[in-house]
Amino acid sequence: MKSELNVFVTGASSGFGAAIARRFIDEGHRVIATGRRTERLAELAAACGERLLPLTLDVRDHAAVEAAVAGLPAPFAAVDVLVNNAGLALGLKPADQADMADWEQMVDTNIKGLLYVTRALTPGMVERGRGHVINLGSVAGEWPYPGGNVYGGTKAFVRQFSLNLRADLVGRGVRVSNIEPGMAETEFSLVRYHGDAEKAKAVYAGTQPLTAEDIADTVYWIATRPAHVNINTISLMPECQAFSSFAVKRQS
User: Fold this and answer.
1) Which residue, 160, 173, 219, 238, is most buried by CB atoms nearer than 10 A?
2) 151 noted as active-site residue
3) Domain residue extents for the chain
4) What's the 3-state SS for 176-211?
5) Span 6-236: which CATH code?
6) From 151, 193, 204, 220, the catalytic residue
């Protein structure tokens, strides 16, 4: 592993992404922190200093992603680690009642956005013979729950794409990892409930969920393994959470 890494983090304006950016900065690395909220990125940059490059970017915009990668300044241009963190869940209605706009936004962000950034950065990694793609999946990509329909589907895609990307890049110095968190308290539920803070808070009532720092610690550990070690998949949950039971609909 290089002693100093250039780390490209998507969705860095809050939650996991901001914590991941801070962790790498604290350990002496450089970070390209991307997100849609310019003011949040500016706050992060003010706290982290010149080793962090804030970059306003919507990963759903393919042309903007390509332009952003092509325009990286020289000290940041050779990206060693890509953390595909940008993603969201919207709504919990059953499939027959769900909002199609919510479905489309999840697909555009969680799948297509991840693809755009991965495709833009992996050629450089292959050319340099080193690199690491770390994707943020979810336990929802393996374990279903009511209302998780398209969100779970997008995270199942992340899981399988990570495995296939690993197969494509094997032996070329580029590692691929997938992290699948369970319940974690960030803005995740606030976004899912379209800004309803009361509903979002209720999700975590009486629990001790994972934190953004827990995920940042996991990402950092994966990225700093020796170059010959590839962590394929990590699934983690808070102690208070376990796998869903089978749904059984009983007649009254």
Assistant:
1) 219
2) yes
3) 6-236
4) EEEEEECCECCCHHHHHCCCCHHHHHHHCCCCCCEC
5) 3.40.50.720
6) 151
